[in-house]
Amino acid sequence: MSGLALETPPEPLEVRKRIRELYEVLSGQLGSGSERAAVWSGNLLARYLWGEWGGELKKMGFSWPTFLSALKAYTSLVARWAITGDLSWEELVDRIRAGLASRTRGGLERFLS
Question: In Å, what is the CA distance from 29 to each residue of 4, 11, 66?
Answer without folding.
Answer: 40, 29, 30
